[in-house]
Amino acid sequence: MTAMLDSSATTRPVSRQTFDEVIVPTYAPAAMILVRGKGLELWDQDDKRYLDFTSGIAVSALGHCPDAVVHALTEQAHKVWHLSNAYTNEQVLRLGLALTEATFADRAFFCNSGAEANEAALKLARKYGHEKFGAHKSRIVSCLSSFHGRTLFTVSVGGQPKYTEGFEPLPPNIDHIKYNDIESARAAIGDDVCAVIVEPIQGEGGVIPGDTAFLKELRALCDKTGALLIFDEVQSGVGRTGALYAYMNHGVTPDILTSAKALGNGYPIGAMLTTNDIAKHFGVGSHGTTYGGNPLAATVALKVIETVNQPAFLARVREAADKIVANLRKLKADYPEVFGEPRNAGLLIGLPLADAYKGRAKDFTKAAEALGLMLLVAGPDVIRMAPALVVTDEQIAEADALLRKAIDAVLAPASAK
C-alpha cells in the first residue's frame, strides 16, 4: 500500500546528505546547497557568498534572476502556462519570428533541452537523407571528444566512450573524425553520409575552438556529398562567443543549428533551426514533444534573445572575454609549470593544465570553491570558465584574485615538502 505524503517532507530541513538518500546517484554535487542568487552572485544555506563563473554550465547568460526576465516570466505566469502542441500560442510564434529573422533559418522546432534539440536534428537529417536519396544515405559523422547530449542516440553520436559504456548495443552507422583535422574529415565523409554534426567550439571536450578552415571544409564536403551540416550550438550559442551564434564568427552557414542552455537562462528550452527545404521532411506527426514551445519557456527565451542580440551587448561580451583571457595569460606567465596557454571563443574559456598537473583540474576548482569562486572543468585537464555575459570588470578582477589564492592553496603542500 502506498504511504500518504508526510506533509513535513516539503518543509523539513534538507542537506547534501539528503541527496545521497533520495536522488539517483548520476551526479556528485558539491557539499553546499545554493538557495538564492542575483547576477553573478549566489548564497548557500549558511549565507556564504559565491562568485559564479559557471552560469550553470553556460546557461544563466544574463545572470541569476535578471529583473527583465523575472518580470516577463511572472507576467506570463498569470496568463497561461501550457496548452500542448494541439494548439499554438503567441509567445512561441514571436520567438520563432525572432530566431528566424536573426539567423539563416526559416523554421524553428522547440523542445526542452539541448539533447532533445540534437535528437530532433539527427532524426531530421536521417529523414531528409532517406526521402531525398534513399535508405542508404543514413551514416552520421561526428567528432571525437564531442558532446551532444545524454539520450542513447546523442550519446552515441558524441565522441566520448565513457558516456556509452554499459549502454550497448548503440545505434549503428555513426563514425567519428578528429576535430580540426581536415584530412580525417575528407576520409570519412562520403556519399552515404546524411549528416555531419560539429560544435563550433568543443566545450566538454576541453574548450577547443574550431578552426575556420576545418569548418569551411566540412561545409564544402557536405555540399559535395549532399549531407547536411549540423552545428551544435547548445553551449556556444546565444551570445556566448560574442556573436548571437558562433557560426557567424566563421562565415560558415549550417543546414541545421541547435540551441538551448543560454536560450532560456535556466528555464528549460531547446530549439532546432533549419531551412524551409529541409524542414518540410518533418511532416505532421513525424516528431513531437509535449512541453516544447510552451508559453512560459517561449516568453523567457524571447526576452533573452531581445536582450542579447544587440550590438553593444555583444561587443561587451567580447571586451569582457579579452580582459579575462589577458588575466589568464598573466597567470600562466606567473605559474608556467602549472598552466598552458588559455584558449577561448568569447566567454567560453579554458585554462589547460601543464603536464606536471594534468588530471588535477578539480583540485583547483575545489580550492576556488572553498574561497567563494565557482568554476567548471572540461575533462580532468582543463579549468573552464563560462561566466554570465553580464560579468563586470570588478567581478573579473575579483575572480582573478580568488583564482590566484586557490592556486597557491593547491601548490602549498608541494612547496612545504
Automatic annotation (TrEMBL):
Entry binding sites for pyridoxal 5'-phosphate: G114, A115, F147, D232, E233, V234, Q235, T290
Gene3D superfamilies named in the record: Aspartate Aminotransferase, domain 1, Type I PLP-dependent aspartate aminotransferase-like (Major domain)
Pathway(s) annotated for this protein in UniProt: Amino-acid biosynthesis; L-arginine biosynthesis; N(2)-acetyl-L-ornithine from L-glutamate: step 4/4; Amine and polyamine biosynthesis; ectoine biosynthesis; L-ectoine from L-aspartate 4-semialdehyde: step 1/3
Cofactor(s) annotated in UniProt: pyridoxal 5'-phosphate
GO BP annotations, alphabetical order: L-arginine biosynthetic process
Binding annotation for N(2)-acetyl-L-ornithine: R150, T289
UniProt keyword annotation of Transferase present: yes
N6-(pyridoxal phosphate)lysine: residues bearing it: K261
Recorded catalytic activity of this chain's protein: N(2)-acetyl-L-ornithine + 2-oxoglutarate = N-acetyl-L-glutamate 5-semialdehyde + L-glutamate
Enzyme class: transferase
Signal peptide limits: none
GO molecular function, one term: N2-acetyl-L-ornithine:2-oxoglutarate 5-aminotransferase activity
EC number of the protein: 2.6.1.11
Cellular component GO terms held in the UniProt record: cytoplasm
Keyword Zinc-finger among UniProt keywords: no
Subcellular location(s) of the protein: Cytoplasm
Major location category of this protein: cytoplasm
Keywords: Amino-acid biosynthesis, Aminotransferase, Arginine biosynthesis, Cytoplasm, Pyridoxal phosphate, Transferase
Domain of life where this protein originates: Bacteria
NCBIfam families documented for this protein: arg_catab_astC (TIGR03246), argD (TIGR00707), PRK01278.1 (NF002325), PRK05093.1 (NF003468)
Subunit structure: Homodimer.
Similarity field: Belongs to the class-III pyridoxal-phosphate-dependent aminotransferase family. ArgD subfamily.
Other facts noted in the record for this chain: May also have succinyldiaminopimelate aminotransferase activity, thus carrying out the corresponding step in lysine biosynthesis.
Name of this chain's protein: Acetylornithine aminotransferase
